Structures are given as C-alpha cells and as structure tokens.
Amino acid sequence: MSLKLGDVFPNLSVDTTAGKLQLHDFFGNSWGILFSHPRDYTPVCTTELGRAAQLTPEFEKRGVKMIALSCDSVEDHHGWTKDIESYNTVKVTYPIIADSDRSIAKQLGMLDPDEKDPTGMPLTCRAVFIVGPDKKVKLSILYPATTGRNFNELLRVIDSLQLTATKKVATPVDWKDGDKCMVVPSLSNEDASKLFPKGFETKNVPSGKSYIRLTPHPK
Description:
CATH topology of the largest domain: Glutaredoxin
Structural class: alpha+beta
CATH superfamily of the largest domain: Glutaredoxin
Radius of gyration: 20 Å
Number of helices: 7
Oligomer: single chain
CATH architecture of the largest domain: 3-Layer(aba) Sandwich
Helix content: 25-40%
Shape: elongated
Mean pLDDT: 94
Order of helices and strands: EEHEHHEHEHEEEEHEEHEE
Strand content: 25-35%
CATH class of the largest domain: Alpha Beta
Distance between the termini: 38 Å
Number of strands: 13
C-alpha cells in the first residue's frame, strides 16, 4: 500500500508505550504526525526522538498529536526511551508504536530495502505522515535510514499546511510563519481585494503575466 496525498490515513490498531491505541481515536479532531524510525538503540534515531521530545511544546501549540514508530517491541521502546532522555536531557511524552513484524511498515510503504537487521529483515525508513483533522494525508516524506530529519522543517511545513487549509494563499520557498504569502492563482484580483484587506502587491515579470501576487501574512 502506498498512501497518496488526500488518502484517508488507515485507522490502525497499534501497540505502543502508552498501551493499545486506535490511531483515529488518538488523533481525534486534531492534526497528527506519525514519524517512523529504523530501529531502537541506534544513534541517529536517538537524536531524532530526542529532538522531537524537545519540540513537543511547539507541536502542542499547533494542536498536533505526535506518535512515533520503530520496528521493535514495546519492551525495547521503554528501555531505549531511557537512553533518549539521558542523551538529550529531555522527557519523552509521546507514544512509540511497536512494529516488530513490520506489518505496519509494509502497509504504509515504509520499508527501506537497503537497510536490514542481522536476520536480513528490512528496517523501517524515516517516514513522516502529517494527517489533518479530517484524517486525510496532508504530507508524506521518506528519508533513508542514514539521513536524520530536520524537525524545525516539519514545524514550518505544519504552519504552512494549517494556514493554507483556511486561507486562499500559498507559501513560497523558504517561507516562515509571519512572512508574506502568495495569493493563489485561481483567485481574481477583485476577490483578492475583498479577502485581503491589507492588499496585495503584483510583481512585474518579463512575460507580462500577473501571477506573482504577494500579500502580508493573513493572521
């Protein structure tokens, strides 16, 4: 199975460090993020889960429920969590899903064929799924096991997703919350003037087309 943008995220029943959970119930009416990791007791994963824990208040501020996944047992997760907390000087409060048989990783298309455990089983890649309150996939990213993620970038993406879900804007390259946004091309100048009381600026380009329109962040 390969999830596409707009697909409903599966309502998986999962065993976690917080007990058995049903994912749709866990996310509730909130935004959600699921991030997977190759294996417990590995160096890059330890830094990633630690950074996620450090940024938990930022995810909570955005109304985002966090849950991680690694292809080991709940017992291993509990033991590894102590290392994560010690190394990163932080408390891990989000649940970690157990997926020893890789069934969830297979279902969500998260296996890395180039990284295997000592028995030859492929490990989980570094996947990210951001799920909206409607339980649909809003973003998915796959990283190889050898490349750690930038969790500040995930927060930036969430800011963009949440803004553009309710406003007729798009966010340009390297955009950060508070920066100017772009008026979506489908919106006429007349409608844009009504929607954006602070106005918008149309940039002149050699083609003469008026498709680059910047407006202050619509708070």
